[in-house]
Amino acid sequence: MKLLQAINLTKKFPNKLAVNNISLTINQGDLVALLGPNGAGKSTTLNMLIGVSQPTSGKIIFGDKSASIKDYKNEIGVVFQGSVLDANLTVKDNIMTRAHMYTRTVQLNSLIKKFELESIWKQPYCSLSGGQKRRVDIARALISSPKLLFLDEPSTGLDIQTRTKIWEVLNQLREDTGLTIVFTTHYLEESENADYVYIMDQGKVIAEDTVAGLQQKYTQNVLQLDYLTGETTTTTLDNKDEAIKILVKNAKLLTNFEYRPGTMDDVFMNLTGKEIR
Ligand SMILES: Nc1ncnc2c1ncn2[C@@H]1O[C@H](COP(=O)(O)OP(=O)(O)OP(=O)(O)O)[C@@H](O)[C@H]1O
């Protein structure tokens, strides 16, 4: 079921066409990635979807009707790239101040537990590590029990363990509550977990599909076989099942093999001719 649609969204700044006529469909329950290099227009797109910035043209449909942000602001949670929390307040005060603003809230205790906030509950926000801050930011965005969570570059600057931990919690939440998540990223490996990916470059969506669909369209899986005779062959294949068939058939003739599935790095490179970073 479609939860949010953006149709022909464009954002022109005085000297920059930041977003150029893009359309997105966010289905309920999906994890959707907006992937692209610096300056691709990801944050500008997100800002229009959350009402921080007005589109120059285009429209947004929430549920089944054309919407302005006031129609759906209670249904969304947002985690910005830079935190909006009060640096001098404790985690508790930041969270509780927010909780008092809403009549419909999640079970705070379960949120505190999920994001492991107990041990930092009385610490000032400014004294937290990057990963701890991000956990508090996300927990705060979920207090109003939103249907749709927007995350702008959720793991930029975080180490791999912290990133993995945050995604574990978010995936658990998706499983438990059916939460829909839209996130921007320039980490290719992060986009590989998404249900649907929009690849942006220079203000445009240059490709969109599931990860498997993108890999199918824009990459090749390569099987290299090293034979007892010393010969080496390289073959491109549609999928790993074909590789398994070839390997089984030739098992006795081989000294070694390597199977390299197409990656999101290859997808981006094939689409743009450049690396994402
Ligand atoms: N307020 C503004 N005025 C003028 N130009 C802007 C403004 N905001 C963004 N831009 C420009 O629009 C383009 C897209 O910026 P945007 O921040 O959306 O990119 P991004 O894909 O989110 O990049 P990053 O990954 O670095 O956050 C950039 O060239 C940026 O300089």
TrEMBL record:
<feature type="domain" description="ABC transporter">
    <location>
        <begin position="4"/>
        <end position="227"/>
    </location>
</feature>
<keyword id="KW-0813">Transport</keyword>
<dbReference type="InterPro" id="IPR027417">
    <property type="entry name" value="P-loop_NTPase"/>
</dbReference>
<dbReference type="InterPro" id="IPR003593">
    <property type="entry name" value="AAA+_ATPase"/>
</dbReference>
<protein>
    <submittedName>
        <fullName>ABC transporter ATP-binding protein</fullName>
    </submittedName>
</protein>
<dbReference type="InterPro" id="IPR017871">
    <property type="entry name" value="ABC_transporter-like_CS"/>
</dbReference>
<dbReference type="InterPro" id="IPR050763">
    <property type="entry name" value="ABC_transporter_ATP-binding"/>
</dbReference>
<keyword id="KW-0067">ATP-binding</keyword>
<keyword id="KW-0547">Nucleotide-binding</keyword>
<dbReference type="InterPro" id="IPR003439">
    <property type="entry name" value="ABC_transporter-like_ATP-bd"/>
</dbReference>
<dbReference type="GO" id="GO:0005524">
    <property type="term" value="F:ATP binding"/>
</dbReference>
<comment type="similarity">
    <text>Belongs to the ABC transporter superfamily.</text>
</comment>
<dbReference type="Pfam" id="PF00005">
    <property type="entry name" value="ABC_tran"/>
</dbReference>
